[in-house]
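Appendix B. Chain record.
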Amino acid sequence: MTSRFTWPDERLVRAAQRGDVGSLTTVVLESQPHVRKFALSLCASPQDAEDAAQEALIILYRKIGTLRATGALASWMFRIVRNECLRQLRMLAVRSEEAPAESAGPSAEEAVLQRLEVARIAAAVGALPPDQRQVLVLRDLQGLPGRTVAHALGLSTAAMKSRLHRARATLRQELASAERAEGEVRP
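Structure tokens predicted for this chain:
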């Protein structure tokens, strides 16, 4: 038999919002399994998931008073976890850009061309509308299952697939037009 965790009830959440430290501690402890599980399903690595879950629980502890509807704790926490996982992904991208090149790596020319290509793709992804960019990053870059992406973004699977299709088509079009423009400029 599998054990099921339950979210804290509204009465406990209200008490935590009023400043009851015992209730707040219980809310954080009862939310922790859900937050961790969701972070593991979204983040690129278990370490990133743990960091995102910890940050989300800290935000819960500090900002529970800003939660408007006590019954919306789960969706509020899932949004916080999703945002933390996306922040972890952005930090990972920055760290990988700053990492020193290995001595057995590509030649200087290949490295420059590779960085230019990565920059070109990153710019095209960055130019996507936010809703399309989120789906593309979670599904294609993080490799998350479609259902997980749809759930994380509060979409139906069909809506997630539609956004992903539009994002890929837009990205393909942007990259192709940028490549044509570069071809016209080259001597």
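Further analysis of this model is presented in Appendix C.
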